[in-house]
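Journal club side-thread
Mid-discussion, someone asked how the predicted structure for our own chain would compare to the paper's figures. Pasting it here so we can look after the session.
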Amino acid sequence: MAAMTDTTGRGGAERRVWGRLPDGARDALTDGLAPADLRTALLDVARTRAAAVRPADLLRRWRDDRFVRPADSDPRVLAEIEARLWRLLPAEFDGVELSPVVPLGTCSAVAPVSQDRIVATVRATEVVSDATNALAVEAAVRRRRQPVAGAVHLAASHRHLRAQLFGPGTAAHFRLFTLVSSARDTGSGRTEAALLARHLAYWRRVLAALPTAAAPRLRYTVLDDPVVAERVGELLPGLAAAGGVDVVEEPDRERGRGYYVAAALRLTARDGTGPVELGDGGFTGWTALLTGDAKERCLISCLSTERFAALAGGPR
């Protein structure tokens, strides 16, 4: 007799679904089939279900399914904004045109992110939910081909799809302009400070495109690392001397602790109703995990181009 399906630690929906299937069904699907055989089985299920779809079903899903509804943003405005972001990007950043999908587990394997937030496919892939994870994988691949003293700086503009609910009236998909930098630690917080200064300088130029009334602010937080704090402090006068949008320390920040290490940054502004979160970022251990080198440092950051466009009304 097949073993009972283990439902320990699963929610009511999972227990209900697996309870309707024969004992051992979950074990057979997760462990009993080779990946190619599992893919064949899932494709067969998808083919059978797709054959039953009628035009009226498509219209209903198009109307009701938040995953497939078009965004409210004007693509012409977004294209202009993103073109400006690319023009402002320093030459050392390589642009990457990501695939719509990445290997299954790209987020959850390196970050404390639930797979429930991610839209998986039947082909052992998942729809991109965070381009910084995908860029970190690409950065790790490139870093392994470089000399130890090398560095990788990548950028991408991509539409993301996430499964979690963001609240009434919000879309499940959105565009982000993302940066990922990876380099090996040279000691005394110098690598972290240099990478952070590089990202801060770029986002400062970007925020300068917003009207003064939007009150753009670029904030940074050093997370319990006095050595990094000292090195960052040495570099900030250079940023201040350049003028423009203020770079403000945010020492009391708590959000992101445990996800980010060493330091974090945040991009904010204001619209007619109050503060607007435009972007976020910080150091992660992703490329260290991917390369197997604990000395590797990885800084990620991003900007919501749709929120930026709403405030900017197009580039100046």
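Post-session note: Residues 40 and 261 are 41 Å apart (CA to CA).
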